[in-house]
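HUMAN:
Just now I want nothing more than another pair of eyes on a protein record. I would be glad if you read both lines and explained how they fit together. I have put the entry right below:
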Amino acid sequence: MESNKKLPLFIGAAIIFFILYVILAAKPLHKEYQFQPVWKINITKQVSPLKENEQLYYFRLGKNLGYFTDEGNITLYKTFTNLASISDTYFCLYDNYARNTTFYENSGTAKGVINFEGFPYIVDDMIYVMLPGGNSFIKCDSDGNKEWKYEGILPITAFKAGPKYTAAGFADGSINIFNNENGEAEIQFAPGGSDLPVVLGIDISPDGEYIAAVCGHNKQRFVLAHREENQPKIIFHTFLDTNSANQCLVHFCNDESRVIYNFENTIGIYDFKKNQNDLIKINSKIISIRETDNLVFLLGKAGKKYSVYILEKTNTLEGSFSFIAETAFIQTGYDTLYVGKDDSISKISLERK
């Protein structure tokens, strides 16, 4: 009889414990990004007419280049045998003896002629010509005429074009920051700190306030400097565990809260708000960086294996995927990732659930 009386009490206690556990211990599930394939197209598909005000994205895969739309239409497709430069705005084809190079709008209409001998380098709506010898360059206007020219004697080993400023790093470890309006070198300095002071990667924030670089060999280091009037002040640096002399990418994020850099099988992230530098080990060399509103995508390459790494604003690696290809690229739109592989382009939508 006594055991029968204890049974309801035991069941009641168990129910109360379960209710308290659900109330106190249960937490909402962490939302994760879901990647949903939308379409896949072949770059050699029939070219579609360009619609008015349609957003175009460029692609370059091997010896093929052109433009595509968010709906999966190829609006321009060209093959080339020698060299090419392309952005979402312009493109041009040239050879090893480039001179009087015609460049085109993304519609395929000839825009102008670059009347200088040298290799064209197109970034967004900006046109540069890297002059023979590798130590000088010209910034052109939208018709291909000279806006301004930098003439130097030292080899340019790192170069980055921004909307307001152009950054160049040199073999002797020095850095010049040029005003895009007049070509004036507003900042000139040398971070130093290495036995062989060569600049291997560089970027400048869109507002021109910060300069970041990977520089040196033997005690290679990442350096972040803040512009104080026209004198830069180094606010952070760290030595890197590598002796590689390869060029590397340095990239300020669109919101200017972080700068991302790459060295031997490693992604570095410096966070301005946290004053924190994080390192993420990977198995490839980063060759491209693209952003959406919330995510950063990095394309890495190791032989024929390409890997796409996904970073969120937590400065952690959210995920990655890999594929085998001869050539590849990534592009981003609003909550969209485009992945090019050999002769195809895929659209992937991003949704957090």
Notes: The helical segments are 2-25. The mean pLDDT is 89.
